[in-house]
Amino acid sequence: MNFIIKLKKARNIVEKTGELYVSRRRAKSKLNKLVNKKGHKIVAKKELKEIKHYAKLTFGSSSYWPWLALYTEIRGEFKPGWIPEDYYTVLLKKKYNPKSAKISKHKTFDHRMFPEFSVEPLLVKIWGSYYNAAAKKVDKSEAERILQNYKEEIVIKQEDASGGGKIVFANADNVDLNQLMPSLNYVIQPVLRQHENLNRLNKSSVNTIRVFTYLKSNGEAEVKFSTLRFGIGNSRVDNVNAGGGFVNVNENGELSEFGYDKIGICIGKRHPDTGVKFSSISIPSAMEILTKCKFSHEKFPYLRFIGWDVMVSESGKPRLLEWNSSPTLWIPEALFGPLFREDDFDFV
Q: Is 141 helix (H, G, I), strand (E, B) or coil?
């Protein structure tokens, strides 16, 4: 028994070391790209020494410097209180967001978990079977009739997809269910039209609000940041990694002055395609969005960190498109942080 315990501990150490190594390589790669794109460097010998000292003092090792150096290059200065992405991902999320509770990839279940918030599907496909919006099993011919009768545009999402990937837009009456992979699960939803305020910014994509909530030890959810993500060009998705951008959302629902790209570089005060000033846009139902995200997190208290992707319909009603049980932190932490207080959680 002691041997098995030792073996498990050794395996955990090896996994942790490997994950930290990979994460730090990502940070260094992003750091090089950022410096090359900016054409100048902020983190010199003196700054790096200070960063390593902070990492050693706060997190127990100076090896946490790469993400902190990246944050400094993005922000233009070092901010004590930052949490490096590798520490957050490899240690904090593993402790506070256990794998056993990570069900956010099961998109076919969203409308049942958050029925007043999530977009009601037309159909879901699970293990080869079809279910309607009421979660009643229907045969394939009935599923086809549901789509034929709807006739409007729909979106088909593969269950394990993330970051705007594996998403197909189509007219409902042109969908061939035989094209869906038999071994995969899908959710088929109506395409909702977004509010005119967000359409002004970019009408090609549904521009969603990413809300990051943290569940405090007293069971109360707190919003740490919210950003509006927008598509660029003719992209149907607003995901930053798919070429989109983002802008911070202030507490009153108004957008901040500047937008940013996927590595945190400022792209200016206006949308690159439409020319609309970010600061001229306000998010409809902004307080309702935050309230719904906090309420939904408290309803599912098994995770401490959750990222919510919310759109605002034409009528101004917030609708949850997706939620993420493993949200990234690094760009908002670099630009708008430090986002956490020392008493938010015990350092691991």
A: helix
Q: How far is CA 320 from CA 56, 229, 311, in A?
A: 40, 14, 6
Q: pLDDT value at position 341?
A: 87
Q: Please enumerate, as own/partner, the contacts of 340-346 that have beta carbons within 8 Å and a separation of 24 or more.
A: 340/81, 340/83, 340/214, 340/224, 342/81, 344/214, 344/216, 345/92, 345/96, 345/217, 345/304
Distance between CA 179 and CA 184 in Å, rounded?
A: 11
Residue 165, pLDDT > 60, answer: no
Task: Give the Cα separation of 258 and 274 in Å (integer).
Answer: 15
Q: How far apart are the first and last CA of the chain?
A: 26
CA 73 from chain centre, in angstroms, equals: 22
| Cα 306-228-247 angle, rounded to 5 deg | 115
Residue carrying the six token digits 């094209």: 179
SS3 156: strand
Q: What band does 25 get if pLDDT is binned at 50, 70 and 90? A: very high
What's the whole-model pTM score? 0.89
- Domains of the chain from N-terminus onward: 15-97 (no CATH), 120-190 (no CATH), 195-325 (3.30.470)
Condensed to tens digits (0 to 9), the pLDDT of residues 70-109 reads 999 999 999 999 999 999 999 999 899 988 667 777 788 8
For residue 174, give the nearest of 150, 198, 196 by alpha carbon.
Answer: 150
- Distances in Å between the Cα of 205 and the Cα atoms of 114, 217, 245, 254, 263 are 24, 37, 12, 20, 21
Angle between helices 65-75 and 45-59 (to 10 degrees): 130
The SS3 of residue 285 is coil
DSSP 70-105: HHHHHHSS--TT---HHHIIIIIHHHHS-GGG--TT
- Spell out where 50-182 has E strands: 123-126, 129-131, 137-138, 153-158, 167-171
